[in-house]
Design goal:
Shape: globular
Helix content: 10-25%
Distance between the termini: 24 Å
Largest sheet: 6 strands, mixed
Order of helices and strands: EEHEHHEEEEEHEHEEEE
Structural class: alpha/beta
Number of strands: 13
Radius of gyration: 16 Å
Length: 224
Amino acid sequence: MQRSLFPLPRKGERTTMPRLVIISDTHGPHRSLTLPDGDILIHAGDITEHGTLAAVQAFDECLGQFPHTYKIVIAGNHDFCFEDESAEAQSLLTNATYLQDQAIEIMGVKFFGSPWTPEFFNWAFMRPRGEEMRTVWEQVPADTDVLISHGPPKGIFDLTYAGENAGCDELLAAVREIMPKFHIFGHIHEGRGVKRGKDTTFLNASSVSPDYRQIYPPYVVEVD
């Protein structure tokens, strides 16, 4: 399924290399963000701190002031309203394309976004490890260029301060099979970083530190 709020180029058309501006885990104080210009702004989830509709509306107002032509947003485990009050939450997001297990093509680049992470405690968008997570990643099209998930794959920027690799095994298997050009995620604040592999570049784009201080700038990449 494809969904967009913006007029898009014809399928497969690309006039330039799209410039992606990437953030994640902002948790609310969006007016303090300093974002460079680019073609496509991507937020990889945890828009809010407590998952309220009011926080989504405030986020959308900030999105409307950002200069990027296209904006893609997925939810994260803090964004309860996108799971519990999905229609209303999505209706408030008027300045971006929201992806929930959905694909979209922009400027000739194919994106897929999903909020699900392996189950821990009682957060939003969680499923048990194993088959239920596998069914999520089986939905990713084989020709995806940029995969956006809230959580990391197992063993890549997923190490918590407690010494646990919190990433998803099934997501790692899907990335190895699909080989997207970029895999963008957040969720594990202490795991922020970039890893350039043979086929895929991994980016944990968390904007905040483990104690929720907004200290990291966006990542900026071009998709060739």
